[in-house]
């Protein structure tokens, strides 16, 4: 029996196939992503504590606003950690934070501080990031966590968010006192220099002495007296660090010696005699000195065992004063250096300290005519620190300045000296009767207690590629030490 409808059935199947094909083309397949990454994180405007001056010139605290949108946050997609490497300024409030977050498709949830469950995040949420979040279910402290909940119902691994805020005022200098003692008793007429992780002090006590303290780990070790080959009658004020050595004058004729900062070995350098050492130029490995000649004092350069007298010799350096010098390269030519030397003015009625200038291309010294002069401080000290020249010391009669009352700063090679009025200062704390065991530091009292006998050295930021801490070391008559550093110079780089 023949099936008469077979062709018709075949046609119907063909048509169905065609229709199915057309219908398949009209069906849109939707696949929901399972990506659960946070791709961007930033902050809005936050509050910050500040200190200003009121109408009477007194410190006055107030709350300001700070735009934090430009503080970058790094997102570690492997560890799922989000934080700002560059900490927010000291005093920034992070208890009410508006966040801006970009993430893969889906919804974003977070666990508020102290909450047990996640909550939906919105861009207007004010989140408390202060301190750690305590979770009672786990009995643990943990940072605020964000999670992305994808449309596919996949829940991503939590991102831990940490907002770093400076815990110290960056530009404020912090001090610590160490009760070290010289092995040879009190030392007067001190000159301190730094070399190779050690602070060396040259001083007098029934003769002249050299002692050093190892500060390579930022904490001063007990003083060690150098005894081998130490000449008699050291000119303690002549101690000058240059090119890995400490040069000084000794003997009745003031001959030149050098101390190796690696081995502490002292060697005789040359039979030539000098009147004084003004400073050293590490960049050019040369000493600046003064010799007493037939026609008076002559300035010049001592380099590679050779003395070269200046063509225009300078004769106005005062005798019997410690000189403090610093050398920098010119911004326009690395082959040209500028050396600034400073000392106390011995003229009683002169109100200005002496500043001298030497440019290597000129090979001559000149007295610096100061536009904003440095007061003629007793026992004045000059240091190069944080890219600037700082000076400080004892009292000044006119203008009246009390001992160790403040720093003076110069950013133009000793042309102008401005008193530092904020952040960087010498503390003058007084004992608290309610906290008798609390450590306090009073620099004016220390200066008076030690009869004005002190010296100062500075550790550089880097020495032979090794960090040296950026510390200021002030050594007192008895060997006790005050260590200071601008807080930001001790911050660990995070980038």
Domain tally: 2
What CATH architecture label of the largest domain applies?
A: 6 Propeller
- Mean residue pLDDT: 88
The residue ranges in which pLDDT falls below 50 over 5 or more consecutive positions are 1-23, 133-139
| Helical segment count | 2
Distance between the termini: 90 Å
CATH class of the largest domain: Mainly Beta
The structural class is: mainly beta
The Cα radius of gyration reads 35 Å
What is the approximate shape?
elongated
Characterization of the model:
The protein is mainly β and 495 residues long. It folds into two domains: 38-162, no CATH class; 173-490, Neuraminidase, CATH 2.120.10. It is 6% helix and 42% strand. A six-stranded mixed β-sheet has the order 4-5-13-12-7-8, with no helix packed on it. Strands 14-39-38-35 form a four-stranded antiparallel β-sheet, with no helix packed on it.
């Amino acid at each position: 029996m023949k099936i008469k409808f077979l062709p018709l059935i075949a046609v119907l199947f063909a048509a169905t196939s065609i229709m199915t094909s057309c219908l398949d083309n009209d069906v849109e397949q939707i696949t929901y992503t399972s990506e659960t990454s946070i791709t961007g994180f930033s902050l809005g405007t936050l509050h910050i504590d500040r200190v200003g001056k009121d109408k009477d010139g007194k410190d006055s605290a107030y709350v300001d606003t700070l735009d934090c949108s430009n503080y970058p946050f790094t997102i570690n997609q492997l560890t799922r950690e989000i934080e700002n490497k560059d900490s927010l300024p000291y005093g920034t409030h992070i208890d009410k934070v508006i966040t801006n977050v970009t993430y893969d498709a889906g919804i974003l949830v977070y666990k508020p501080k102290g909450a047990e469950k996640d909550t939906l995040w919105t861009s207007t949420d004010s989140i408390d990031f202060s301190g750690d979040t305590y979770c009672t279910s786990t009995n643990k402290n943990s940072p605020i966590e964000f999670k992305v909940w994808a449309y596919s119902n996949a829940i991503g691994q939590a991102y831990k968010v940490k907002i770093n805020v400076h815990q110290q005022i960056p530009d404020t200098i912090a001090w610590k006192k160490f009760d070290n003692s010289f092995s040879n008793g009190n030392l007067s007429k001190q000159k301190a220099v730094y070399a190779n992780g050690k602070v060396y002090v040259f001083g007098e006590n029934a003769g002249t002495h050299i002692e050093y303290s190892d500060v390579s780990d930022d904490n001063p070790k007990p003083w060690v007296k150098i005894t081998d080959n130490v000449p008699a009658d050291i000119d303690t004020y002549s101690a000058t660090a240059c090119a890995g050595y400490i040069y000084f004058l000794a003997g009745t004729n003031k001959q030149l010696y050098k101390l190796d900062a690696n081995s502490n070995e002292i060697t005789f350098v040359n039979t030539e005699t000098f009147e004084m050492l003004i400073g050293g130029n590490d960049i050019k490995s040369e000493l600046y000195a003064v010799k007493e000649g037939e026609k008076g004092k002559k300035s010049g350069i001592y380099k590679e065992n050779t003395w070269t007298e200046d063509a225009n010799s300078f004769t106005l350096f005062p005798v019997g004063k410690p000189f403090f010098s610093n050398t920098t390269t010119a911004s326009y030519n690395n082959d040209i250096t500028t050396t600034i030397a400073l000392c106390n003015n011995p003229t009683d009625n002169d109100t200005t300290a002496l500043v001298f200038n030497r440019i290597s291309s000129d090979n001559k010294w000149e007295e610096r005519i100061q536009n904003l002069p440095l007061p003629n401080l007793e026992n004045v000290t000059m240091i190069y620190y944080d890219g600037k020249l700082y000076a400080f010391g004892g009292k000044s009669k006119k203008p009246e300045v009390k001992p160790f009352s403040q720093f003076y700063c110069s950013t133009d090679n000793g042309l102008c000296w401005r008193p530092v009025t904020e952040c960087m200062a010498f503390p003058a704390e007084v004992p608290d009767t309610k906290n008798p065991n609390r450590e306090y530091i009073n620099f004016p009292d220390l200066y008076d207690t030690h009869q004005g006998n002190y010296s100062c050295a500075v550790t550089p930021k880097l020495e032979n590629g090794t960090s040296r801490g950026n510390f200021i070391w002030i050594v007192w008559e008895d060997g006790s030490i005050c260590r200071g550093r601008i807080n930001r110079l001790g911050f660990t780089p995070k980038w």
